[in-house]
Amino acid sequence: MDEHSNHDVMVDVRNVTKAYGNADPAIKNINLTFRKGEFIVLLGPSGVGKSTLLRCLNFLVQPTSGDIVIDGEVLGTLSKKGLLAARHHIGMIFQEFNLVNRMSVLMNVMCGRLGTLPFWRALTYNFSREDHEAAVRALIRAGLEDPELYLRRADTLSGGQKQRVAIARMMVQEPKVILADEPIASLDVIMRTQIMDLIRDIADREGLTVVMSLHQLDIARKYADRVIALAGGQVTFDGPPTELTDEVVERVFMKPASAVEQDLRAEEARAAAEAAKSSNEAKAGSDND
Amino acid sequence: MRSFEHGLYDVSKNNSAEHAVTEAMLQASSPKLTPMRILILAILAAIYWAAIQGTEISLNEIVTGMPAIAELLSEMFPPDWSYLGELFPRVIETLQIGIIATIIASILSLPLAFLAAKNVSPHPLIYIPIRFFLTVCRGVSELIWALLFVVAVGLGPFAGVIALIIYCVGVIGKLLAEAVEAVDPGPLEAMEAAGASRWKVFLYGAWPQVLPLYLSYCLYYWDHNTRQAVVLGFVGAGGVGYALFFNISTYYFEKAMMAMIVLILMIVIIDRFCLFLRQRII
Amino acid sequence: MTDAVAAGMFDAVMEQRRVSRRQVLIIGSIILALGLWSAWGAEFNLAKLAFGMPAFFDLFARMMPPDLSVVPSLMGPMIETLEMALLGTTIPIFFALPLAFLCAVNTSPYPIVSVIARLLVGAFRTVPELIWAMVLVTAVGLGPFPGVIALTLHSIGGLGKFYYEAIESTDPGIIEAMEAAGASRFKVIWFGIMPNVLPVMMSSTLFYWEYNNRASTVLGLVGAGGIGLALTHALQDFRYQEVITCLILIVLILVVIDRLSAFLRARII
Predict the structure, then answer these.
(1) How far apart are CA A63 and CA A77, in angstroms?
(2) Which residue of B92, C84, C158, C238 has the fewest CB atoms within a 10 Å radius of its CB?
(3) Can you tell me the mean pLDDT for B68-80?
(4) How many CA atoms lie within 13 A of C45 on its CB side?
(5) Phi–psi pair at C122, nearest 5 degrees
(6) Secondary structure of C31-96 in the HEC alphabet?
(7) Across chain B, which distance is largest between two alpha carbons, in Å?
């Protein structure tokens, strides 16, 4: 698709710069457009500005200059209320899952609809029947089919399960765009593939645009339609994964491709150990129930 | 003695690598007397010395004062059991002061804590003055607030209640605000990203984390307020405290002792009750 | 199938809500009833407060502007107050610590010892320091000395309770392991328990230091020295502008102590 029709553009990043305080800008003069249904991966080691760019897309971080246009709405010109409404159409998942530990899984998922929950219902934690049903459907879609899980506290789940809950929370928003900040960094290898497959599946079926930041090269190659690499706050590569040569990789990660491979293996081993530990804790916790 | 010749205890087999590691561990774990630390210790010692001088502590005085204390104690025993009847309404009064003060303070401190927490407060221009207000409430002791409010509402338990409320709001407000600030920011970010307004972010992201702490503080300060209600008897704020102070100043020591015993019993019971509640709720 | 599960889930959650809502309602009603009864007994009367405020503001007006000329003469009493608090917090440590080990069920030699020790700690803690001060002033005279003793006695109880709660919350696994390895009781305490409870103890001690600073400002009201005594004298002589100066200084002390305590807490714990 070489021609861009305006109806097709979902995310438009117009000359965005973000500097924190008086420091050097974290991202500088970024110009990008993402079309509907594209699966974008922001690639690069930590610190290059992936997180900042991602958070600018829903204005969790306000750009110092430039505009962000989501589905035709210029975020910078919206009122506070308007921004909240716009965010409703943008779902986000995080590396640390960001669930509320003491709340039940079901309620965590329903929090995706907080934006549209009326005042009195919000005050008394009283979601509607429709909200409950949407939450259950989302959980099943996210691969958590055992209803016994739904009423348990969120901190009794394993890492992979927690991320599924987070995905379900995002789905009840019925978003048009999915933002993902290192969603698999805290998961082990098997879980990673499952979660990535899940996200890809959801995005394909609903025709959603995905913008995901990753530093796992192999995952990026496998799932992305388009890879955008950042270095020093600017775009140094923009193209399909097939164009990711060793030379490009070296430029992006600032070390030879083989070293990058090694790092990834080591990190996978670490993540596996961590995931095993946390699932043991979760099991112990549920045993004590 | 054989074991000393072989193996474990054989020091002559000085394994130099092991030796080096052990030396390093000893070095790391023993406190180092750097010049800075010596200076700090010296300053502390000086402050301490000045304090002892300034407050005129002397073991000598304690010794010479002993007979007076002994005489005092003898006058306190046996306690006057007939006084129990008069004490009962006083006990009820003290409990009431503690309860109403804690209830009102618990309710008032919630919105104030919300506004005084850096991460959820609408604006720095709100959070800074409120923080200061809470500090003033805490800074002035309950007794002094009570003295001041006696001017407004006269002698009696009401002045005490107001004083307790003001102080308690200051304390719980500060503790709660700090708890809200220490909350895991992750869930808050997620709620924000989903499009929830500020107060919703607080209610669903921060409040569940803070609730058990809040209940714990309220229970702790119920105990504290009941005890302080006694002290406020000093300003005529009624209750067991008033009985205690009155009797001490009029030298009715057996009655004072009775009041003291009742007081201790009351607090012990409340303590137990609080412990029980704490286990049920948290 | 999904919709049936979903509907079933909603009903289950609603049932749960109904039960907990009932509980909340019951507890809420109890608290409301207690509140109303207490308010009546404590002579709580908002109208009285409203009518009394003019008198309050009149008093406040008489306190303005604060009399700053007395500040130099208040320096001495202020330092006295701080010294009382310092000694009243540090001296009790020597008594509270061993007492705490006797109170804690996992370090006490016999259960009966634990019970008696706890009663003792409770007694020391419950009697307000003001009462201790009043009694001691009768015995040893006016001045900061009875104040220090009063604070010490009260703090033995207060610190003791915090300490033994910390000791009891030690992971029993550590104690078991050390005892199994044949360590004496003392070693179990020193190497097994102390490292774990030390941070909590220091935190509690700092908390009590803050508390004692506030308490020592008040002890002066019964003649036990410090800035409280100066405030009482000013109040008795109707020198209201001096009273407010004392109050301002008291708040200042608290703010400084608060900051210092937070700083120490960050550095040491």
Answers:
(1) 12
(2) C238
(3) 77
(4) 15
(5) -60, -45
(6) HHHHHHHHHHHCCCCHHHHHHHHHHHHHHHHHHCCCCHHHHHHHHHHHHHHHHHHHHHHHHHHHHH
(7) 87
Q: Which contiguous run of DSSP H or E holds residue A57?
A: helix A50-57
A90 Cβ contact list (under 8 Å, min separation 6): A57, A58, A70, A175, A176, A177, A178, A179, B193, B195
Q: Which residues contact B13 (CB under 8 A, 6 or more apart)?
A: none
Q: Does the distance separating the beta carbons of C7 and A147 come in below 8 Å?
A: no
pLDDT per residue, tens digit, chain A (289 aa), is 444 445 688 898 998 998 888 888 888 888 999 999 999 999 988 878 888 999 999 999 889 989 999 988 888 889 888 999 999 999 999 999 999 988 999 999 999 999 889 999 888 888 888 898 899 999 999 999 888 888 889 989 988 999 999 999 999 999 999 999 999 988 888 889 999 999 999 999 999 999 999 988 889 999 999 999 988 888 888 999 888 888 888 888 888 888 888 888 888 888 777 767 766 665 554 444 3
Closest CA to C255 of C201, C226, C204, C214: C214
Task: Write down the pTM of the prediction.
Answer: 0.76
| Residue A18, helix vs strand vs coil | strand
3-state secondary structure of A2: coil
Could you report the predicted ipTM of this complex, rounded to two decimals?
Answer: 0.84
> Please, which residues have CB within 8 angstroms of residue C107's CB and are 6 or more apart in sequence?
C101, C167, C185, C189, C193
The 10 Å Cβ neighbour count of residue A81 is: 9
pLDDT digits (tens, 9 = 90+) for B140-157: 888 888 888 887 787 788
HEC string of B127-169 equals HHHHHHHHHHHHHCCHHHHHHHHHHHHCCCHHHHHHHHHHHHH
CB contact under 8 A, A133 and C8: no
Q: Check residue A111 and report its DSSP letter.
A: G
- 3-state secondary structure (DSSP) of residue C180: helix
Q: Do C5 and A132 touch (CB under 8 A)?
A: no
Distance (Å) of CA B32 to CA B25, C18, C263: 13, 62, 22
Q: Residue C49 in contact with residue B162, Cβ under 8 Å?
A: yes
Instruction: Identify the three-state secondary structure at position A32.
Output: strand
Amino acid letter for position B82: S
Task: Give CA angle at A196 (A190, A197), nearest 5°.
Answer: 90
Give me the residue from B193, B196, B209 closest to A60, CB to CB: B193
* Contacts for C232 with CB less than 8 Å, ≥ 6 apart: C220, C221, C223
The number of C-beta contacts closer than 8 angstroms across A and B is 76
